[in-house]
Every structure is written in structure tokens, then in C-alpha cells.
Write a structure and sequence with these properties.
Blueprint (H helix, E strand, L loop, with lengths): L4 H8 L21 H4 L8 H8 L28 H19 L6 H15 L15 E5 L6 H12 L4 E7 L2 E6 L3 E4 L6 H15 L18 H11 L5 E6 L1 H4 L4 H15 L3 E5 L12 H6 L4 E3 L9 H11 L3 E2 L8 H4 L17 H10 L3 H16 L8 E2 L1 H14 L7 H5 L6 H5 L1 H4 L10
Parallel strand pairs: 1-6, 1-7, 4-5, 5-6, 8-9
Antiparallel strand pairs: 2-3
Helix pairs in contact: 5-8, 7-8, 14-15, 15-16
């Protein structure tokens, strides 16, 4: 696409970023919504929905697990469940709904942004213009390692992170950008000033010069910084703001509530949907003590909970065994699954537990029903199998499992893997105790730990 350099120069100026043309001819045919056309609807049927989220062929409907022998980017280990697909439909639907109210083919779109830009130049008595409808806010909560990061990458791939230039979308505008997706981790200090500054920097890096020129970078620290962010979120046609990496250590900081309140304000003024991805610790501020947190979850709280024995857990385990032609030792090992496996991982019908092999049950206990930890453990197990001498390396014996478990607990940088160590305070380190809110479900918060 050929773009007029003079128009681009005009876009880079904060007060002239949107070029408004003369009044359109009343007889002119209205153009289709160029923004909405860039975001395809999320499929409604299961197979297309699954394919839309899951495309790397590592583990899925064919029960094929990525080759742990190669150790390739285990951060991408992902197994979408029905909750993942439902959440994806909600998030993509919120983006499309927001774009239906941001039609660059209408003069109202250009007029609102021009008013915001003029306000930045000379703040007046009139209030800063708000979006007609606030953006939908969704909270995604789950324990560490459940697949929140992989889900975020799937949403990013589905929407597309590269800005799209639209030239002459209508007689009302000469040129406008569309940034369908922007993601950023919560700042470590959880200060609003840092959050605003980093968002402006991210925006400016993606659409060079749209937020501020080099001589204006200090303006990001002024009292107009948040209004500048609101304005330029509209100027780049932002479709979704995805905030992630929120855990108990950040929520415990005093400014955390201000950050959450600011995200609500961002959605209110820009009309841009916001997704906040957090550990279970977010439920500590969703109990009514924080109005901002409740507003941030006005689009609902989607829970990516521990995988249960009657869910896709067996598919994942069997996928590993079939892919590498492995079998489990036939030794009759008594395994009290009803005692070793916590209630949150048990199926509604306990009769299912009787058919659980010792291998499936021990895996569930060691990895807490978390896909990322499962993948990490299987990597240690494969190393143990590959080093066996004078033995069948295709059969997993209880001794192999125990050796892998010891190496896994020692080598894992996450919380101690063993479930009993995790849930018994007397045997937990101070760091583990401090991380409890990230792992404890809302239902467990009322229990005594």
C-alpha cells in the first residue's frame, strides 16, 4: 500500500494526528467499517474453534506431544479446553463489538479524536471526551503454569499484532492506523505513572511517532500523560489491551489498586476492551474490597482451573506414552488416589478414581494438574529413561518415576512440586508461603491453611 509521506508527518503531530477532510458529500456511498473487517469472527463450531486457537501440532486432538527430547520452547506447551475456547470467543467478540462503534468511515470518528487532540493542546473547561460505550473488561485467573501465557500468545496470533495502515477509509479521514492488539506486563513497581509511560512507549514503538516525538518524551510524565494515552489509543485504532503477569507479589504493593482503577478508566475513556491475566491472587481484591477490581471484571472472570482427572489429563498422559511408544510397568502398585489427590482435582464421580493408574495418579500429585509442570516433569522423566542401562528403556517403572520426581523438585524454579509440601505450612519456605495466594482457589480461601 502506498502512503502519502505528508499525511504520515501530519499523523505524527499530537495535535494534528488525524487529518479531517472537508464535509463529505451527502450522496456519497458509505464505506464498510475498515476496522471491523480486519478482525474475523471467532468460529462457533468446536473443530474450527479448536483449530483457531491451536495450530502448532504439539498436543491436541491427535494426542501428539511435542518432542521433549529436543526441549523446544516449552513455554508454548498448550492444550486448549472448552474454557479456553469460550474465553477466546468472549475476548474476540468484545474486540469486534468495540470496532462496530469505531467506524473510521464516519465523520463522528474523526471528530471525537480531533476534540481529544485539541484538548491536549489547550485543556479547557469542557471535560475530556469519553467513548460512547466503555470497553468490555475481562479477568483471566488461574494458577501458575495452567496455560494463561500460551492462551495470550494464541489471542495475539489470532488478532495479529502488526499495525494496519488505512489510507482514505472515508471522505471524513485521509489516513488512520489500526493496532488490533497491544500487550504488556504489569510494571514491577505497580505505579500508574510507570504503566502509562510504558504503554505510550509500546504504542510509539509500534507506530513510530504517533505518541510523541523525541522532544516530547518528557510529556509522558506530565499530568496530561493519561489523556495523551487515551487520545493515541484512539488514533492507532487500538482493538485490545492485554495486561498480564499479575501475581500476589504485585497485588500486595500499595499502588496496585491505583493501577487497576486506571485500567478501568482506560476502558471507559477509550472504549477499548481490556484483558487482565492474573494468578488466583486476583480473587483477594474481587471480594468487594476494591471497586476498581469489580469494574475491571465487568466482562466476567474466566477461570483456568487445575486440570481434573476426568478432563483432558488422561489424553495428555496417554499422548506422551503413545508418541514415544512407552508403556507403564505392570507391577501392581497400590495407589490411594482418593487420599493423595486433593478434592479440586477429583472428578465428581469418585468411581472414576478406581481406573486411575499409579502413573496417572502420581503425575497428578507431582504436577498439581498443571500442563506446564506436567511438560517439565516429562522432560525429567525422559532424561531418566534415556540413561537406563541394561534395561528396557520403553517401560516406565516406579523407580524411574521416583528418580525423575527427585530431580524435578530439585531443578524446578517454581514452587516445590510435591503437593503435600505445598499445602503443609510447617514444611514450606517463606517464599512458598508468600506465594500461596497465587495457587489457592477462591473456594479454598475460606479454609484454614
Amino acid at each position: 500500500m502506498t502512503i502519502d509521506i505528508e499525511v504520515l508527518d501530519a499523523i505524527a503531530q499530537p495535535t494534528n494526528s488525524l487529518v479531517v477532510a472537508s464535509a463529505p458529500d451527502a450522496k456519497a456511498v458509505r464505506q464498510p467499517n475498515a476496522f471491523l473487517a480486519q478482525v474475523r469472527p471467532f468460529p462457533t463450531e468446536r473443530k474450527p474453534r479448536y483449530d483457531a486457537l491451536y495450530s502448532n501440532g504439539r498436543v491436541g486432538m491427535s494426542s501428539v506431544l511435542e518432542d521433549v527430547r529436543e526441549g523446544q520452547d516449552d513455554s508454548e506447551f498448550f492444550h486448549p479446553s472448552e474454557e479456553h475456547m469460550l474465553t477466546a470467543r468472549i475476548v474476540v467478540g468484545a474486540v469486534r463489538d468495540a470496532y462496530t462503534r469505531k467506524d473510521p468511515s464516519t465523520p463522528e470518528f474523526a471528530g471525537r479524536l480531533a476534540l481529544q487532540a485539541r484538548y491536549l493542546q489547550s485543556p479547557g473547561i469542557d471535560p475530556f471526551p469519553k467513548a460512547d460505550v466503555a470497553g468490555n473488561c475481562t479477568v483471566i485467573a488461574g494458577p501458575p503454569g495452567i496455560g494463561k501465557g500460551a492462551f495470550r500468545r494464541r489471542i495475539r496470533a489470532y488478532l495479529g499484532e502488526q499495525p494496519v495502515p488505512h489510507k482514505n477509509p472515508s471522505p471524513a479521514t485521509h489516513f488512520v492506523w489500526q493496532m488490533k492488539y497491544l500487550e504488556m506486563p504489569f510494571p514491577s513497581n505497580m505505579k500508574v505513572e510507570s504503566l502509562i509511560s510504558q504503554l505510550l512507549m509500546h504504542m510509539d514503538a509500534r507506530v513510530r511517532g504517533v505518541a510523541f516525538k523525541d522532544s516530547q518524551r518528557q510529556a509522558a510524565k506530565s499530568n496530561l500523560a493519561r489523556l495523551r494515552l487515551f487520545t493515541h489509543a484512539g488514533m492507532v485504532g487500538l482493538g485490545l489491551l492485554y495486561m498480564y503477569d499479575l501475581d500476589g507479589s504485585k497485588l500486595n504493593r500499595r499502588p496496585a489498586a491505583e493501577c487497576i482503577d486506571f485500567l478501568c478508566e482506560f476502558a471507559e475513556y477509550t472504549g477499548v476492551p481490556v484483558v487482565c491475566s492474573s494468578t488466583y491472587s486476583i480473587f483477594g481484591v474481587l471480594d468487594g474490597s476494591s471497586g476498581g477490581a469489580l469494574t475491571l471484571a465487568n466482562g466476567g472472570v474466566r477461570r483456568f482451573d487445575y486440570m481434573r482427572l476426568d478432563s483432558d489429563w488422561r489424553n495428555l498422559v496417554n499422548g506422551f506414552l503413545m508418541q514415544y511408544k512407552l508403556t507403564v510397568g505392570s507391577t501392581n502398585i497400590a495407589f490411594a488416589a482418593d487420599k493423595a489427590i486433593p478434592e479440586r482435582l477429583m472428578p465428581a464421580e469418585r468411581a472414576f478414581v478406581e481406573s486411575v493408574s499409579w502413573f496417572e495418579g502420581c503425575l497428578m500429585v507431582e504436577t498439581l494438574g498443571l500442563p506446564e509442570l506436567l511438560f517439565t516433569f516429562l522432560g525429567f522423566l525422559w532424561q531418566v529413561l534415556s540413561k537406563k542401562k541394561d534395561a528396557n528403556r520403553t517401560v516406565i517403572e516406579k523407580g524411574d518415576f521416583d528418580v525423575a520426581a527427585a530431580q524435578y523438585r530439585k531443578g524446578s524454579g517454581l514452587l516445590r512440586a510435591n503437593l503435600f509440601i505445598l499445602l503443609t505450612k510447617e514444611r514450606c519456605s517463606q517464599v512458598e508461603v508468600n506465594r500461596f495466594p497465587d495457587w489457592i482457589t477462591p473456594e479454598q480461601r475460606g479454609e484454614k491453611w
